TrEMBL record:
This is Zinc finger homeobox protein 4-like. It is found in: Nucleus. Transmembrane segments: none annotated. The chain holds residues 37 to 239 of 1050 of the full protein. Residues 10-70, 107-167 form the Homeobox domain. Residues 12-71, 109-168 bind DNA.
Length: 203
DNA sequence: GACCCATTATTA
DNA sequence: TAATAATGGGTC
């Protein structure tokens, strides 16, 4: 059987292109006007920013997806106008013309980190121990049971997998060349099998 | 679109 | 400062 990890790692990847603030400014400006830009607009952005069209398209896909995600799940949804509108209104002395891109001031910062309760963590971890890849309906269930947004659940599993993978790799390294039969990391094995199954559509 | 994973950044 | 939630660009 092929280890997905091996496949992943042996793949040669292009280095991650970092989008600078200035480039982001340009993309944002277009995005605020139009979610799905035309080819021409993409070309314009490519010229202005120096980014490849592929990267730009990708950015738009992800940004739109995230924006919708945000609107659906609640923790990052600041668009619900607070009832206490009074407290946070201040008037910008001089709105600089450069600042237009930041469509919405309340979105500009990274959302604050959610603190899980011990109970929530225990439930999540228990689930993870038997299945690192919950299906949509299972995520939905966890979401209602734990009273957490689905997005948060998804991200938690994502990070949990990442963490488990890492410790698996460390252990593998430590055990040096006795690579094959590790019975220790049930999670990851299970995960990989499920991942493979998923990829092969075997359910 | 789902997931990966290096990275960023927020808390205890 | 460590642990880890969240981000963003990458792949299939």
């Amino acid at each position: 059987g092929l280890d997905p990890n091996f496949l992943r790692h042996s793949q040669f990847k292009r280095p991650r292109t970092r989008i600078t603030d200035d480039q982001l400014k340009i993309l944002r400006a277009y995005f605020d006007i139009n979610n799905s830009p035309s080819e021409e607009q993409i070309q314009e952005m490519a010229e202005k920013s120096g980014l490849s069209q592929k990267v730009i398209k990708h950015w738009f896909r992800n940004t739109l997806f995230k924006e919708r995600q945000r609107n659906k799940d609640s923790p990052y949804n600041f668009s619900n106008p607070p009832i206490t509108v009074l407290e946070d209104i201040r008037i910008d002395p001089q709105p600089s013309s450069l600042e237009h891109y930041k469509s919405d001031a309340s979105f500009s910062k990274r959302s604050s980190r959610t603190r899980f309760t011990d109970y929530q963590l225990r439930v999540l971890q228990d689930f993870f121990d038997t299945n690192a890849y919950p299906k949509d309906d299972e995520i939905e269930q966890l979401s209602t049971v734990l009273n957490l947004p689905t997005r948060v659940i998804v991200v938690w599993f994502q990070n949990a997998r990442q963490k488990a993978r890492k410790s698996y790799e460390n252990q593998t390294e430590a055990k040096d060349n006795e690579k094959r039969e590790l019975t220790n990391e049930r999670y990851i094995r299970t995960s990989n099998m499920q991942y493979q199954c998923k990829k092969c559509n075997v359910v």
